[in-house]
Design a protein that fits this description.
Layout: H1 7-14, E1 21-23, E2 26-32, H2 36-53, E3 58-62, E4 65-70, H3 80-98
Antiparallel strand pairs: 1-2, 2-4, 3-4
Helix pairs in contact: 2-3
Length: 105
């Protein structure tokens, strides 16, 4: 089983991941897009990243907002695996921006 991280370590690591926060037993971030389809393209990119890592976020799409929630379900909370996926997702959002998908401020 993957080891749960203590809240203090999660908080320290999240300082290096802009916009991510700890919410209970998850880490989350909401991304905002100017167009609905830009958010959907991002979700598809995240799905590819998640599949490669064999670790999948909870995804909530609400028009132009996409909220991702990460937790290692088998461990019942946040592990290093979740933080690694969050870093990979951040790389995906930068790639989405380079593709010309508009990310709202």
């Amino acid at each position: 089983m993957t080891k749960l991280l203590p809240p203090s370590e999660i908080d320290a690591r999240l300082k290096r991941l802009e916009g991510w926060k700890r919410e209970g037993d998850f880490i989350t971030k909401t991304y905002h897009f100017k167009e609905f389809m830009d958010g959907i393209a991002f979700v598809n990119k995240v799905a590819g990243v998640a599949e490669k890592q064999e670790h999948h976020p909870d995804v909530h799409v609400r028009y132009t907002a996409v909220t991702l929630s990460l937790q290692t379900h088998s461990a019942g909370g946040v592990t290093a695996w979740d933080l690694g996926l969050a870093r990979a997702i951040e790389r995906a959002i930068r790639a989405t921006a380079r593709e010309g998908r508009t990310i709202a401020p």
